[in-house]
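In the laboratory, one determines a bound structure by crystallizing the protein with its ligand and collecting diffraction data. In a computational setting the workflow is compressed into a single prediction: the sequence and the ligand go in, and a structural description comes out. We illustrate the idea with FE2/S2 (inorganic) cluster.
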Amino acid sequence: MTTASSADHPTRRDFLFVATGAAAVVGAAATVWPLVAQMNPDAATIAAGAPIQVDLTPIAEGQDIKVFWRGKPIYISHRTKKQIEEAQKVPLSSLPDPQPDSARVKAGHDQWLVVIGICTHLGCIPIAHEGNYDGFFCPCHGSQYDSSGRIRQGPAPANLPVPPYAFLTDTKIQIG
Amino acid sequence: MSGPSDFQPSNPALKWIERRLPIFGLIHSSFVAYPTPRNLNYWWTFGAILSMMLALQILTGVILAMHYTPHADLAFKSVELIVRDVNYGWLLRNMHACGASMFFFAVYIHMFRGLYYGSYKEPREVLWILGVIIYLLMMATGFMGYVLPWGQMSFWGATVITNLFSAVPYFGESIVTLLWGGYSVGNPTLNRFFSLHYLLPFVIAGVVVLHIWALHVAGQNNPAGVEAKTEKDTVPFTPHATIKDAFGVSCFLIFFAWFIFYMPNYLGDADNYIPANPGVTPAHIVPEWYYLPFYAILRSIPNKLAGVACMFGAIIVLAFLPWLDNARTRSSKYRPLAKQFFWIFVVVCILLGYLGSQPPEGIYVIAGRILTVCYFAYFLIVLPLLARIETPRPVPNSIADDVLAKSKGRAATAASVMLALVVAGGLFAGSTQNAKAEEGGDTPPAQSWSFSGPFGKYDRGSLQRGLKVYKEVCSACHGLNYIAFRNLADAGGPGYSEAQAAALAAEYKIKDGPNDQGEMFERPGRPADYFPAPFPNEQAARVANGGAAPPDLSLITKARSYKRGFPQFVIDFFTQYQEQGPDYVDAVLQGFEDKAPAGVTIPEGSYYNKYFPGHAIKMPKPLSDGQVTFDDGSPATVKQYAHDVTTFLMWAAEPRMEERKRIGMQVFFFLVIFAILMYFTKRKVWADAH
Ligand code: FES
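The predicted complex, in structure-token form:
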């Protein structure tokens, strides 16, 4: 825009241009806000992401189920004695993402492993009861998780995340 | 004029690009150095306004398409969910829907300006014809966009307009079938209209580029209608025209915001808040206001093919304007007769628009025929004749002379003309509401509502009482499809806490499933659940209620209206009155009378209601004194019940209203300040030019 050079009131003229320009910038920014914010999840989607309750009684030892919460598959495994032992025995130093088994299950409920079944590599769904570690195997690029859902081998950088959940009773959990 | 430019960027990186793709030179020569006549008035800013509107429509349209579902069963609902659940969805939808009207409003001004100042004359014929093509494309786009919400007017508008093509001899039926993709307007029609509605704006944008190209070859016309000859006649586009356009745009935005935030339904039709129903035609099919003059022409011809031909002819004739009017003088300013006929023509168009909104009976038909003749006579008789017999006044030698001779009163006249146009526009637009004829129901008395006006807010107590009335009385027969229990805890709603909303939800049994055994089951409601419908399907509702299915109440206060009449609807534009729906619902709830007045016969199974159109309503008197008790000591009277439940239903129809009005106030505050700043900036920039 023109720089102020006219003889009368150069400063007032500058001030006007700056004020108008600033107002235009503020207006443009305020307009962009809703145009971007609309991409966030809408109220119905958020409401549908409310906590869910899962009854554990039908899951026999050695079995697991897959439930969906917020569109994500959640594995709930009823671990065997052997699986629990393996998970607890592994030296932490040998793990790519060191985390003790006790940090991945709820105290007193060692037999229940609840993890989000999304490979931390690029988001495929690992298959339960496969691979060399009695845990999960991701078919996409070969990541292997152990019976605690920790990454042991393959390109994935981190353990399978544990969703927020709590035991309502010994046989009922609430996820979320 | 926008020939190769000698502009060279100073930045080496830009220089590097410029040598390979001279885009900066192009921009510089077209939008910076481009010489623009210095005597342009504010009517010329509508070009910039239209460019902005096209960009805005494309932007909001692309966003809405992210949330919209083009399926006959889901479209209506998805639009409601956009408005209710998507972040700022109500804003985006209002911008897009009102934006269409604003787009047409601006294009009409732009066209009348071209007509008045002879902007179609040599050497701008192609420029003008491209404009007519844009206008045709806009009409097609606007029509298909109106179909997408899949309300009653969408559906029946689509039916009527596509049936226009059945008038074509021999191929008519095949063309219509081709358009529909079925035996009638249905899901395939909706799908293709969505696809085309997304496509056409980009075609428009392409033709706009040609339009601007042609403009930059011929140069802009100007109020004097003489070509720019010397440097003294022009000013560089930037900053002069840019700033002036920006000021025009900011003023236009104020007008636009008035609709977006305060009158979003003023230009719409209440019937379009009723989901499409192929079995029931609304009493009066009225297209959007911007098609009304052509609709009036269509209806005034008693022959189907001739009517359709005339309607299209009324637009096509514009393309021949450069050859119909071959007067040498461009601007009507210097053509005393042409000027008068121009204004007569404007009035003819507005009157035709008014007639298009009226039922086609009696005097309206005759008036429509006379005005149709006038419309065509202007192009086919008046303009060619004037070119021969009129003696124009002398035009100024140059644009510079014109600027010098200009009287001081120009701004004042421009302002008053602007005001007159706004009033006329409001009048014209509002006249659509006239078509909502009340088939013999009394006019509901206007009530005072806490939520009316620019600062309106819902009365929390009234909302809570209204919910109680709905739960205890209305919900036995009427659904509330679009309200979830969680909404009861939303800001701007009845003001319950989330725990209270969850507790209320738990009182309901919700059908869910199938479970692992493949069976449906019932469970207590959760906040995310919607109010369950009282009947499993429409047929069941019909059978249980003497043949008339009780309508869902979520949108009832927006889906009902009544005739406001002239001049009330003009006043409504300024007072922001838009409570026809609540007034009507309230009145109907109180309008039951045990005995029909003498002379009115009410069929078996119906009841007399003073305010219901036709007076015979299938719903028995739903409310009586003492039926519901309020904890807060409000009177247990029908009057109170009706008021509270109507308030509640208004909230149900528009749960985001408080947000809309609050943000509206902020936007207004900003826009007014911005327009004032723009005005002074424009004056400073132009100070040297005068
Ligand atoms: S996504 Fe699982 S290994 Fe790549």
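Residues 187-218 of chain B form the longest helix (32 residues). Keep in mind that any predicted model is a hypothesis to be tested, not a measurement.
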